[in-house]
Amino acid sequence: YVRFHLISPLIQQSAENIILFDTFVNILSHNLGEPAYEADVAQLEYKLVAGEYGLIIRVKGFNHKLPLLFQLIIDYLSDFSFTPAVFEMITEQLKKTYYNILIKPETLAKDVRLLILEHGRWSMIDKYQTLMKGLSIEALSAFVAAFKSQLFVEGLVQGNFTS
After folding, report:
1. Which tens digits make up the pLDDT trace of 138-158?
2. Are 62 and 160 spatial neighbours (Cβ–Cβ below 8 Å)?
3. Domain residue spans in the chain?
4. Helix and strand totals (H; E) in the chain
5. Which residues pair with 5 in a beta bridge?
6. Which phi and psi (to 5°) does residue 156 adopt?
7. Which residues, including other chains, have CB under 8 Å from residue 118's CB and lie 6 or more apart?
8. 7 to each of 51, 52, 59, 114, how far by Cα in Å?
9. Residue 150's closest CA among 55, 67, 46?
10. Strand partners, 54
11. Strands 45-50 vs 2-7: parallel, antiparallel or unpaired
């Protein structure tokens, strides 16, 4: 079991940065779908999560091939690229996801509660309105470059691994 948290102070600076981060993680997951399929068949699991303060990479499975899967994820992260069609598809999916969160009273109430309790939190309404104004491909590319340049990493490895 391997878990890494790539933390960046850039994410929480604005609602737009949070949306760009969500878009980045979703495109990265989309890009990994085909190359990581063989790992799935070999009973290796991975998950990319857009956390509040950074990207969480979770990898789990048999230890002799786990480093290969982790290396694949890191390679796709470092050489991040996307097409305009994928960008449009992911932003449309995010619009639907944010809208579905806004129409459910229990998730909206949780968001409002956390907005009151946490300093510097952006509300789902702010994120949705910013997303509806539109994102540019250039903004995403600039965000990803800045994100990769300002990273702090925390990691946890459990199981049959050597140091």
Report:
1. 999 999 999 999 899 999 998
2. no
3. 2-157
4. 7, 4
5. 56, 154
6. -140, 130
7. none
8. 9, 9, 17, 20
9. 55
10. 7
11. unpaired
